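Q: My labmate handed me this sequence with no annotations at all. I'd like to see what the chain might look like in three dimensions before we decide whether it's worth expressing. Could you predict it?
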Amino acid sequence: MADFICPDIICLGEPMLEFNQQEDGRYLPGHGGDTSNCAIAAARQGASAGYLCHIGYDPFGDSFMELWKAEGVDTSHVRRDPNAPTGIYFVTHTEAGHQFSYFRAGSAASRMRPEDLPADYIAGAKILHVSGISQAISESAAQSVSAAIDIARANDVLVSYDTNLRLKLWPLERAREVIHAAVGRSQIVLPGLDDAVQLTGLEEPDLIADFYLQLGVGVVALTLGAEGTLVATPQERRRIAGRPVTSVDATGAGDTFDGAFLAELAAGREQFAAAEYANAAAALSTQGYGAVAPMPKRDQVEAFMKSEPG
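A: Here is what I predict for the chain of 310 residues:
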């Protein structure tokens, strides 16, 4: 085992520079990437968080290194690739919601390999968090996620998995195969309702929760947008009501939920209380544009929970 202090929560995946469309048509630069967002959201709640990824030796990569340092996210195992770029994406907004356009082919993150993983670093954590996107960007990235899960499970580290389906990256049948296999090796699963409907073929939240529990999951937190979250374990389930806010951009809401939920679990709180807290954090994150900028800190979440009926 490592003789250094490992973060409680380690996230693995691809960070991407974000350009988010504003009401006047201009694009606001920011930071994104689902698992990077999760690490930052967790850190803003006071959790110890670290990130595992590859990024380019380019200004976008520099920007992420500065961001993670400012947010208190450990980057001791972030690798810089001089031969591949940091990915970018654009967010546009329509009446149907927000839409993503990605430019990530051949990115540094897509070149991650299982042999690149720092086993001691993962083994020293409480929670490893990965996602469907982490697996979809390349075959070697998918293999790396699987290897990271192997390391975590061998060392009694909880595995957290967000399905985060992106059909622009892979076909649905392949996504189902890979994602369901990973879910079956995870203790905590954090699907969104829209993704879960496509992945499972089911529409009722309780049936979706049953589907994931039958794969061997210990905790399912199925996010339902403004309707809140269904939290289910093999012994109990509860609907956690959403928190009403005036929302302008839900780009990072799911990732904010993930980070806040895992931060609460890492601090020893039970899953239903963790979901109450994470619902509030996610609601607050929709009140500004971009994935990272509107993410609240703990004092904001706690004040919001006191001011609103729970």
